[in-house]
Amino acid sequence: MGFPRKFKELLEIELSDVDRPDEAWLTYAVCATEKDSCGWGGWMLEDIRKNADGNDPSLVLPAFCEQVCPRCGKETFRTGATLKFVPSSDQSGRLVPGVDYEELPIEYDEDEV
Length: 113
Ligand SMILES: [Zn+2]
Known about the structure:
Layout: H1 8-11, E1 23-30, E2 41-49, E3 77-85
Antiparallel strand pairs: 1-2, 1-3
Bound molecules: zinc ion.
Residues 31, 37-38, 40, 69, 71-72, 74 line the site of zinc ion.
């Protein structure tokens, strides 16, 4: 079973096809807002910006930044532990296709009639 062909252009997006962020902010979040929260803690995406030069909200790129615990689904709390990341000039992959993992061509369902 393949992917829906109508999403072919989305599924085959490469880095050159999207707005590249100039910086990303991560926040250490904890699941501790309710009595039965699970106590999970981990890094979550705060926001991603392009050409960041201030707080202009128009520079925020789309990203998944929901404050939802990945373990139990309750609301998380963003702690004061935050870090800014800037893309490295070395964008060689951490994992090499064909060496670290097998890369298969994307298969699509037949066109709908
Ligand atoms: Zn939780």
